[in-house]
Every structure is written in structure tokens, then in C-alpha cells.
Amino acid sequence: MERITSTRNSRVKDWAALKQKKYRDQTNLFFIEGIRLVEDALESQAPLETILVLDDLIPTGRLDRIVNGTHSLGIELIEVNQAVLEHVADTKTPQGVIAIGRQYQHNKEGLIASKTNPLYLVLDNIQDPGNLGTMIRSADAVGAAGVFVGSGSVDLYNPKVIRATMGSLFHLPVIEVSLRELFPLLRQHDVTVIGASTGAEEELYAVDLTGGTAIVIGSEAHGISGEIRQQIDKWISLPMPGKAESLNAAIASSIILYETLRQRKTKE
User: Fold this and answer.
1) pLDDT value for 72
2) Nearest CA to 110 among 100, 98, 99, 118?
3) Model's pTM, two decimal places?
4) Which pLDDT score, from 0 to 100, does residue 213 have?
5) Structural domain of 216
6) d(CA 50, CA 27)
7) Domain of 117: which CATH number?
């Protein structure tokens, strides 16, 4: 096992640079922090290239599953000290393991063409990393066929987004797309585009969501953008008999996704 102990090492500098979007875009790489997340990535056979492990933890056995997983999958394993780990990490107190992986290259045309009666989550200008990660996690939980993240949203491979997905990024296709190109493709495959808006007259529970459905959620501050609004087939709102003016975007998407799941399970 190779060992690196200097923060001046050229590879360490390259890994640390992945905290910035421009370097992630240039290299098509991203990194994953934390024992549980890295274990999940290995179990899901995510496209990992290198795993950095803290030298102090190797003798304790806490990283045995990760060490064994790298051997079986042919992933490079490098031992590092605390200084190197902290230099590369995005968190203030890294857990002792960081994985470097290749960004997913999902094909939206192939995904859409292969699904029957699918449920998709479509996200327009979602800015908060925690919200984006939570939305992906909820879509994974209900068994959605995929998530489409429109340009203008926070970077899918932002380290905070990766942590917030809690591993769901490794379980279902999540694709960054131009929404203008996406909607015609969805309609070609009989998918109804449904937008969520507080001003819509038709409430969520009155709408049939059992057919091919794409749920569109807009930004936390402004909702679905003007250009995208023209592409919506049907609008729905969440009933709010209380005094709250609106819901957090991640909470709203979770409610809609679970109502869709409820309807589909009832119909079975």
C-alpha cells in the first residue's frame, strides 16, 4: 500500500482541488467522505478510482470492509496521515476515509426509453446543497426511476450534496440536464410533466399520479422558472389549511413523491 504524508505532494494538491467545481468539471472526478458513505459506494460498485485511509485507523479494524473492498474491485488504496486527510477533506473533522470517484455518465435517452410507467423527479434551479441531497434521497426511497437536475441548480457533485444524499446517488440515476431538451423527450414516452405551485387550484390528492409522471420542483425562493413553466402539462398544489405560506422545497417534493407511491401501491 502506498503511503503519502506530505500536503505538498502533487496528487494531494489535485485531490484537494476537487473541492472546487471548476476542477471537478475539468477532471470529471469527485470525492466522497466518511466511512459509511464510502462503504455504500463500494457495495454499489460506484466508479471509484482511489481511496485514502487514515494510517491511525488501519490497525483498529474500523476500515477492514473498505480495505477488503478495494482489493476485490481493483481500486487504488493509499495510506495517509491526519495532515493530508484534513487538507483534502471538505469537512472540519474528517472520519478517516475519502474516496475519489469518476462522475457518473448516465444516458438520459436510454434511461427514459427503457422505463414503463416511470416516476421521475425534475429539479429546476435548486440552490441549497442540503435540499438537493434530500430530494435525491427521497426519490431513491420511493423507488423513482431517476432524478433530472436542471442547469442552474447547485452542482450535483458538491461535497455537501454528496453527504446529504446519504448514498442515494449510488443507487439511482441522477442526471444533470438541460430541461428544455428533457421535456420533449419525456412526452415522446408518454410521461406527464406535473409542476408544483402554491397557486395551483388542483390539489395533490385529487390528481391521478399512477401513469408515467415527472414531478417538477422549482427553486426555494422563486419556484419553477418562467421558461420552464411553459413546459408544464398540469399544475398541483399542496393543501395548507394552516397559516404557513409555503413549505421547504425538499419537504414538498417528499410529500408529492410519497403520495405518488401511495397511489401506485393502492392501484396494484
Assistant:
1) 83
2) 118
3) 0.94
4) 98
5) 108-267
6) 14
7) 3.40.1280.10
